## 1
Amino acid sequence: MTDNKEQDTEIHPLKSEEGVSPASPAKKGVCVGGLGLSHLSSWRTAAFFLSLFLCLTIVFAFSFIIPCPVRPVSQHTWSNTYGDSSTYTFLAVTDANNDKVMDVIFAFRGSSGSLNASCSDEGFSSPCSFLVAVTGTNGSVLWERALSQELLWAQCGIEKLGGLEAAGCLVFQSQLLTAIDSQSGVTLWQNNNTLELKQPAVTIPDLDEDEVGDVALIGAAGDKTKVVIVSGQTGRQIGIDTDPGISGVLGHVIHVTSSGSYYLLFKKDSAVYGYALKNIIAMAIKTPQSNIKLQQDPKWEEMTNSTSGSVPVYNLGSVQHLLKMVIQGKTPENLLVVTGHWVELIDGQSLSSLWRVNITNVISEPVFGNFNKDGVPDVMVEDEIGNGTKKVVILDGSSGAVLWEVKLMSSSTSPKPSTVNTTDYRSAFLFWGEVRGETYTTVSLNQQHFLYLLHPSYPKVLLELNNSTENIAAFKAVLFEKSRHACYMLLTGPTEHSQTGSVSLAKRKLKEDVARSRVVRLSQEEGFSDQEIRDGFFKLRYSSSA
C-alpha cells in the first residue's frame, strides 16, 4: 500500500496527502478567481495600446507642426558687385547669422550701399565707408552700416565683445574706436582716443571683474608708443595711457609663456622686445604690481633688462614679420621671425633658435599649413629672387628643411598665399603667380593673376584654378561649413580712394574650380592623366583642424 501511495504521489505531484485531487472544489475556487484576473489583464492590455496610440499620434502630429531644421542651401559660386566704389584690404569670416555656415564681413567706400542706403541718408558726406556682412550661402546682405569717418582698420573675431556670446568687431576711424555686434551690425560701445591706434587689438584677461575679457590697444603719439586698455564690456578706458618706454614700433603681438604669463611683444625694425603685461597694467592704474593678479614668468624675468624693463626677444636682424606658430596641445606658441636675410623659428619659452633658413627677400607674410603629417605646422614663404621671379618655398616646421619649392613669375600686386586643411592631416596650399615656361609673358602677369592649388598628394603637379585681371584687394581660403564646403573669397577693385570703379566680392567653391582647372606639370614624373589628377583633387575632403 505504501508503494502505491508513493507511486501515486509521483504521478500526481500536486495531489495533497488528504487525497484532494486537482479537480476538487477548492481548486475550482482558484479558477474562479483567475477569471477575475483575466478581466484585469485585458484592461491593462487595452490601456497599453491606447497609450501607445496616443504617443504615436503626438509624435506624428508634432513632426508636421514643428518640422526639422532646414539645412541652408549654399550656392557653389556667387558674386556681389558695387559700382563707382573703392574697397579696403579688410576681409573677415564669421558665422553672423547662426546657421553654422560662415559669413563674410568686408568694407567698401562709395556713395550708397546695396540696401539703397546712402551716405546722405545717415547725415554723412559722400562718399563714405560702408561695413557690410553677407551670408556665405548666397551672398545676400545680412546687415550694412555707413561709417561717419574714413575707415582706418577693422578687426573681427574678438570674443565676448560687449558681453555678447558671439565674437564682435572693432572698427577704428579717426580718434573713434567702435565695437560692433557682428550678428546685427549695431554699435555695442564707442571710445574716443586721440592716439593713432594700431592693429591688432589684443584680448587680455578680465581686469575690471565684469566677467568679460578686456582689450589692449597699441597707439602712437608721435614717435612714442602708448598702451591703452579698455573694458571689453563697455569700452571704458581702464587707467591711463601707458608709455612702456619704446619708440619706433612697427608691429606687436600678445604672447603667453608656459607659466601662463602675458607679455606684449613689440616689433621694431631691428629687434623684438617683450614687456610684462602685469607691469603695464600696474602703470596704467597706478597700483603696486603686487595688487595685480597676473603673474610674471620667472625665466623671462631673469632675462629682463633692469633698466628698460624689457625682455630682449630677438635682436639679430631687421625684422619684417613676427608671427606665432600654433602647435595643437603645445604651450607656449613658438615665434616665427622674418628678417631681411632669413626666416627663423625661436622657442616661445627659452627664446633659443630652433632653426634658420636663408632667404633673399620675403615679399609677403608667410602662412602656415601642413605638408607632412608630423603635427607641426609647416611654413610657406614667397621669396623674391630677381628679374620678376619669386620662389615659393614650403619649409618643414620641425627642422626648416625645404619640403617643396617652385619658381614663378612674380607680380607685386599678388595677394599672399592661403591654406585650408584636409582630412588626411595635411593642407591644400593656394598661391598666385605664373609658372615659368608657360605661354604667358611677364607683361601679361602685370595685368593678370593666376591662382594655383597644391596638395602634398601630387607634389609634381599644380592646378590652375582661376585667373583675374582685376586688382585683388583681399584673398582667403575658407572652410564655410565644418568638414565640407571649402571655398576661397576674392575681393577685387580699386584700393586707392582717389580712384573708383567696380568692386566685387566673390565666393568660389574649390571643387567647382578643380573640375574645370588646367593641370600644370612641374615634371613628367607623375604617371597620371590630367583627368585622373583632377579626380584626385576633387575627392579631397576638408577639415576645420589639421
Note: Residues 197 and 219 are 4 Å apart (CA to CA).
## 2
Amino acid sequence: MEISLKYLSGGRAAASGNMMTQSDLDLKETALKEDLKFYFMNPCEKYRARRQIPWKLALQILKILMVTTQLVFFGLSNQLVVSFKEENTVAFKHLFLKGYSGVDEDDYSYSIYTQQDAYDSIFYVINQYRHLKNISLGTLDYEHEGSGLKICKQQYKRRTMLPSNGTLNIDVSIETECISLKPEELAGKKAELKLSSFFNLEFYRLIQVEISFKLKGVALQTIHARELPDCYAFQNTITFNNRAHSGKIKVYFDSDTDIQECKDWHIFSPVLQKNTQYILVFDGFVILSCFASLILCTRSIILALRLQKRFVDFFLEKYKRHVCHADRLEFINGWYVLVIISDVMTIIGSILKMEIKAKNLTSYDVCSILLGISTLFVWVGVIRYLGYFQTYNVLILTMQASLPKVLRFCCCAGMIYLGYTFCGWIVLGPYHEKFEDLNTVAECLFSLVNGDDMFATFAQIQQKSTLVWRFSRLYLYSFISLFIYMILSLFIALITDSYDTIKKYQKSGFPVTDLHEFLKDHDSGYRKDQTSMSFICCCKRQQSDDNLILING
C-alpha cells in the first residue's frame, strides 16, 4: 500500500516530538532535496543553477585529445618494433633453413624426408652461422666473444624394431647429448664434424635435433622516424622434430626477441634529441591531466557517498524504512569509476612510455596493454555525455537493462557450446584440420555461428570413414540450426525486448522509486529520463502494520 509523503511526514513528527521539531525536520528535508536535485543535474544544468563551471567535462574532453594523440605516437613507434621483429624472423628463415620456400607449412617451416636432407640441413645451419657477417644484409652480429651454436640431440636409450615381423624392443628413457661450437672453431672443421660420433645420427631412435644460437642487432630505421634506436637480442632455435618417426621430419624455427638497452651509443642529431624531449614533455602533460581527472572524479565519488549516507539516514529517521539497494546505486556513478580506472592505467602507461622513450626500459607489451585499455575506456566514457540526450541514451539504457538477462542466457548457451566443442574435437579431430585441438574447434564453431567459412568446413572433412563423414553432417547441421536459428534468435530477442521496454518507459515514464518519490516536489531540475535503470531491481515500497498504527495514531 502506497502512502503519500505528507502522511508519512505527519506520522514521523508525531512519533519523534522530543527528538526534533517539525520545522527543523522540514529544513533538513528541504536542504537534502536541494542537494539531491543538484547532484542529479547534468553539467549544463549545474552551471545554470549555481554557475558551477564544468571542470570535469572540460578536462575529459582535453584528456580524450591528449590520450588519443599519445596513443597514436606510441602506436607508430610500436609499429616499427613489430615490423623489425617480423622482417628479421623472415630473414633468419631464409638464412638458416636450407631450401626454405618462403611459406610455412602449417605450424612448422618445412619438412625433410631423407637422411641426406637431414644432414645437409643441419650442416647448412652451421655453415651459415659461421659466415654470418659475410652473408647477412642486416646489422647482425654474434652475442659476444665466446658465444656460439649449441646443438643438442635427443634419442631413445635403446631401440630395436623389425616392422616386417612386428617385433619391438625399446627403452623409453631419453638420452640428451649437447655440444657447443664457436664461430672461430668452425673454420676448416666441417669435414671433422661430419665424421664425429655426435653427428652419426641413428634415425630409428632419434627424437629431435635442436640448434640454438643468439644474435644481436640494432634497429636503425627508428632514426628516420626521429626516434632513438633500440638494440635487439634474437634467441633463435631450429628444431628437427622426428617424434612421430613417420618418415617425415618437421623443421621448426622459433625466434624470441628481447629488446635491450643499448649500452653505449652516440647519435649526433639535434633534431632527434629535441623530438625526444618534446614527446617526453607531452607525456608529462598527459600524466598531469590524468592526475587532475583522477582527483576530481575521486572527490565526486566521495561526495556522492556522503550524500547517499545523508539520504539513507534521513529516510530511516523520518519514514522508519531502509532505502532499497537500487536507490543506493543511483548515487554510485559508474562513469566516474571507469574514468578513475582509465586515469590510473594511463598514468602508469605514460610513465612506462617515457622510460621506453628514454631507452631505460623496453616493456613494449605492458605499455601497449595499459595505454590501449585506457584509451578504450576514455572513448567509451564519451557515451556518458551523449546520454544527456534522450535519443542517444537509448543505447546505454538498453545495455543496462539487457545485461543481466544476457549473462544468464550466455551461461546456458555456453554449456551447449562446450558440449559441441568437446564432441567435435574427439570425433572429427583425426579427419578435419579445423578440429585438431580444442582452441581451433572453438574458433571454428564461433565462425560458423557468425556464418563464416561454412562451405569450406563441410568440404574439408576427409571421407576415409563413412560413419564419421555421416556423423560430421549431422553434427554440423544440428549445430548451425540450433545456434543460428534458435539460440542466436533468442539472444537478439532478449535485447529487442529490453529496447522495447526502454522505448515504452521513455513515453509513459520510468517506474518511480523511493528516491524519485522523495524528489517529486523538487522535480524542476531533476531529469527522470536520466535514470540509471534502477527499475531493474526496483524495490516495492511496503509499509508494515507498525508504521500504519504509528501514522494513524
Note: The chain has 18 helices and seven strands.
## 3
Amino acid sequence: MTNSIPPEAVGRRILSNGDFGTVLYVGSVPPTTGIWLGVEWDDHHRGKHNGSHEGIQYFKCRHPMGGSFIRPNKANFGVDFLSAVKEKYGSNGDDQDSEQGTEVLLVVTKKVVETVGFDSIKEKQKQLNTLSTISVDECAVSLAGQEGEIGRTCPNIRRIDLSKNLLSSWKEVVDIACQLESLETLNLSDNKMRFASTSPPTSTTFCNLRVLALNRTGVTWTEVLVCAAGWPALEELSVASNDISLLKRPIDVLHNLKWLDLSYNQVDESQLQLIADLPRLERLILLNNRISSVHFPDAGFGCKTRMFPSLTHLVLNSNRIAEWSVFSELDKLQKLQSLDCRNNPIMDTDENKETVKQLIIAKIGQLKFLNKSEIFPNERKGAELDYRKKYGVDWLKAGGNQDPNKNHPSEEFLAAHPRFQLLCEKYGAPEDGELKREQPFSLKNQLLTLTFKCPDKPEQNPIQKKLPDSMTIQKVKGLLYRLLKIPGSELKLSYESSKMKGKEFELDNNLKPLQFYSIENEDCILVRW
C-alpha cells in the first residue's frame, strides 16, 4: 500500500483487504481533512452508502449500499505486467525460487490449455525470454508498464492467464498484447474493464489470437463486436456471467469463431437468430439463460434450416424449456450431434426420466449424444419404435393410414410430430396390434405378463406372473417377499424391456406403479438383494 495516488485514478481498479473495487472519486470529504478515495465495491456488502456524505453526493453506486470512502494508503492500485511476471517466475540472475511444487494452470472456457510444473522447469523460470505460457492470475496486474519492455523480456509468450487482476480498461490489455506477436490464448476473466465504444484502428495486435475469455468483465455484446474487428483469427470466445440480454448480428467479424460460451447471461429465444449466421460456429453454450423455445422460421417441418450451418454441439442446461416442439425445431439443424438440456422444466414432466430421454432421441434424428451420454444404435431404434407406437393412434385419428395411398395425416399432426412419417418409412406403418388404443376398463385389459429373474442367483428359476399395471413397486416387493422369503427393504428391482435387450432401467420409487415406468407385456423384472 502507498500514500501516493496514480494519475487518472478515477476509474482505476483497486484491491483493499481482499476486496475488489473501482475508484469513482478522489478528493476531500468535509468536514474531514485530507484526501479520500470514493470506491464502489464489487461486493456491495463491503460498502456503507451510495456515494454520499452528509447530504452531498460525491459519486453514484449501482447498489444503494455499495460504496465507501477509504484513505489512499488502504488501496492497492496494482503493479505492471512485467513486475508480476518477475515476481512469480524469477528474473535473470535472481536466485530465489518461485512457489516450488505448485503448478501453473491456464484455464479458458473450462478447458486446461497447458500445465507447467515449477519443479521441472526451475531453470527455465529464470529465462523469461523462453517462456511460452505465463499465468499471473490474482497478481494485482493493472498496467502494461514501460513501453516495449514486455516484448524485449518475454518475446515468446503464446498463452497468458491474466484473470482476477486490476486491469481497468481494454487499452491496458492492448498495450500488453501489442508487444506479443505470437499471442494465441488470453484469459481476462474477473477483470472489471471499460471497453472500446468505437472500432479500433487497423492493427496486427491480436492477429494470432485464437482463444479469449472475458467472463465476469462487464462487457456487453455490442462492445464485443466493436473489439472483434481486431480478432480476425479468433476461434473460441467465452463471455459468461456478463448480464448480456441483447445480441446484435456480427457483420464482418467473428467469421472464424467455432466456440461461443454465453452461459449465465439473460439471453432469451428472441436473440438467438441474431447469431445464427456465424458460418463456422460448432459449439454454442447457453447454460443458465432465459430460453423457453427455439424457432427456425426459414424451414418447414421435416426440412433443414440454413441457420447455425456448422453447429454440432448445443448446451441448453438450466433454461426455461417446457415444450416438446423445441426438440422438433432442433431437428432442423443440419449438423447437430450433441445436446445437453438438463434442468429444464420439460425434464420434470409426468413422464419418467427414461421416457423423456427416449422421446428426445426419437425427435432429433441425427443426435449422437444426449446429456453427455452416447446414444447407441439399439437405443435409437428402441426409442423410435416406441415413439411410432406411442403416437400411432393419434396418427390414425389425424388421417394416417397403413395404406400409402390413403395416408394423409393433417398438417397439425405433422407439425407436432415431423419425424413420424419418416419413422413409418423406416420401420413400416404401425400395425393395429401395436397401437395403444383406449380400451374398456377391466382388470384383464390391465394385466401384464412379467418374468422375474434373479441374475445374481442362477439357481433360482425364473418366475412368471400376471400383475395389474397399477400395482406399485412396493407391492411388487411384497409379492417377492412371499415368493422368495427376502425382506422387501433388501430388494433392488430393475427391468429389461423386450424391445431393448441388455439395457436395464431401475425401478427406484416404491410409490410409483408399473405403468409409470412404461413396463409392458413380456418384459422382464430383474431382482437383486
Note: The CA atoms of residues 251 and 482 lie 72 Å apart.
